[in-house]
Amino acid sequence: MIKSSVIIPVYNTEKYLDQCLTSVLKQKHEEWEIIAIDDGSTDGSLKILENYACKYQNIAVLKQKNKKQGYARNRGLKESKGKYVLFLDSDDYIDDDAIEICYNHAERYDLDVVLFDAKVIVDGKMPDGFEIDSFDRRGIIKDIQKVYSGKEFLKQYMDFYPDTVSPCMMYISKDFLKRNKIYFLEGVFYEDEEFRFNLMLRAKRIMYIPRLFYNRRYRCDSTMTSGYSEEGHRDFTSVISGMINDIQDCDKDEVTKAYIKKRFWMLADRYKQLKEKNLSEKNIDQILALLSCFWKKCEMPSDIEDVKFRLYFIQHLKSFSTAERLKEAMEEAESQRFVLLSRADLSDFNARVGVWGTSEFIDRLLNGYKTHIGPVNASIIQITALKEKQKNLAYIIVVSDSKQERAFDKLKALYENKIPILRFADVDGNFLF
Questions:
Q1: What confidence category does residue 161 fall into, taking pLDDT thresholds of 50, 70 and 90?
Q2: Long-range pairs of 192-196 with CB within 8 A, sequence gap ≥ 24
Q3: Cβ proximity of 347 and 359 under 8 Å
Q4: 26/298: higher pLDDT
Q5: Cα–Cα distance, 95 to 108 (Å, whole number)
Q6: What is the mean pLDDT of residues 91-113?
Q7: How far apart are CA 163 and CA 133, in angstroms?
Q8: For burial by CB atoms within 10 Å, which of 37, 61, 160, 417 has the most?
Q9: How far is the C-alpha of 13 from the C-alpha of 11, rounded, in Å?
Q10: Domains of the chain and any CATH numbers
């Protein structure tokens, strides 16, 4: 019986390959195999793999022309015989007890996925402006004894960070992957985005181990640090399209929507950085087409709460594109903005309206109302503390920064849900006016 399959795609990493393979050979775990896929390496990587395969019977080497990591990982999955799989990049390595502890957890709690964290290793000088991600969630995930669903874990994690975890920081039941038909997109960069999204939507039993089992290397010459390209932008667009296609009727919840929204921000940011490279004009059309598809697939309402996302997204594009074809979309966005603003009826002389937020945001709200809706006749009461209850308020407006969600929840509790509360900033603190 093979308990664990370690799948390692390899492409021109001869400098790191010994450390990677040795870290698996040193595992305290028994009954494991390595499936190494050489993805058309032009250095000495294949020779190193073949030498190891000659020495160890539980190391299999597959060879192929360069087809990128998604194809290599899928091929490794098909060839693997283990009950569980672990994906390991060939320039990284794992701690000696990683697989044994993950296996014991998976067996004891009948898990689809075991999650863990990573240490970051910086190899060489990083490009100017490059930000190194953190893969340490210890202290963020509070209940480490709980069995989560994928969506439950995703929501808890996204409350602090916009991203989830790399497939390399997952120990996964192969039967779970097979039953749910979860594979990597092939022939593209960012193939792990769609994989982990699909996995988190489908997983019913996940546990988190607060250990830094994985050692993730940042190299100055890797794909990760090479900056954005038009090919990468095109691939990321394809990945988001795949994620939208993954959504089923049962998945149309706020966690799913929030996750994909954040991917749209990443897509927009990439486009912004590529503007100076004369990125093809069709890319804006692709983004807007994806946005429309997402809107329809998730049955998003066309005004008020969820329009905040569309409004900000189109405004974000507008900030670095003057394309004429966006004019109609802009006009629609502006009209929807006023629909949202008109929900706050500030024309009533007798109304006392509470507002929580900074003076700057309140002024912007009031100026926007005066410009586009009408005079402000209501008495505006600025709420300066989330524990001091104001009397005789008709309703409360929250205009805030990233503290907005906390304020919303505390105000609801303070006023016992008896006073309507309107929100004029999205969950990322993006003020609309």
A1: low
A2: 192/166, 192/167, 193/236, 193/239, 193/240, 193/243, 193/263, 194/239, 194/242, 194/243, 194/246, 195/167, 196/164, 196/165, 196/166, 196/167, 196/170
A3: no
A4: 26
A5: 21
A6: 97
A7: 10
A8: 37
A9: 6
A10: 4-225 (3.90.550.10), 230-340 (no CATH), 343-423 (3.40.50)
386 burial via Cβ count (<10 Å: 0-12, 13-18, 19+): middle
Packing angle of the helix pair 307-318, 254-274 (nearest 10 deg): 0
**C-alpha distances in angstroms, 90 versus 7, 102, 215, 220, 232?**
10, 20, 11, 16, 21
HEC string for 178-209 = HHCCCCCCCCCCCHHHHHHHHHHHHCCCEEEC
Dig out the tokens for 216 from the structure. 């993730």
Token digits of residue 128 = 């100017």
| Paired residues of 119 in beta bridges | 215
Query: Please, how many CA atoms are within 13 Å of residue 390, restricted to the half-sphere of its CB?
Result: 22
pTM of the model: 0.76
**Averaged pLDDT, 183-191:** 88
Backbone angles phi, psi at 137, to 5 degrees: -105, 10
With a CB cutoff of 8 Å and minimum separation 6, the contacts of 139 are none
Q: Which of 26-30, 83-87, 187-191, 329-333 is least confident?
A: 329-333
Buried b (16+ CB within 10 A) or exposed e, 46-83: bebbeebbeeeeebbbbeeeebbbbbbbbbbbeebebb
Query: Is residue 23 within 8 Å of residue 121, measured between CB atoms?
Result: no
Average pLDDT over residues 245-249: 86
Question: Which of 138, 137, 135 minimizes the C-alpha distance to 118?
Answer: 135
Neighbours of 345 (CB within 10 A): 15
Spatial distance between the Cα atoms of 173 and 295, rounded to a whole number of angstroms:
33
Distance CA 73, CA 86 (A): 10
> CA-to-CA distance for 120 and 140, rounded, in angstroms?
18
Helix 282-297 crosses helix 307-318 at what angle (to 10 degrees)?
180
Give the distance from CA 251 to its chain's centroid.
Answer: 16
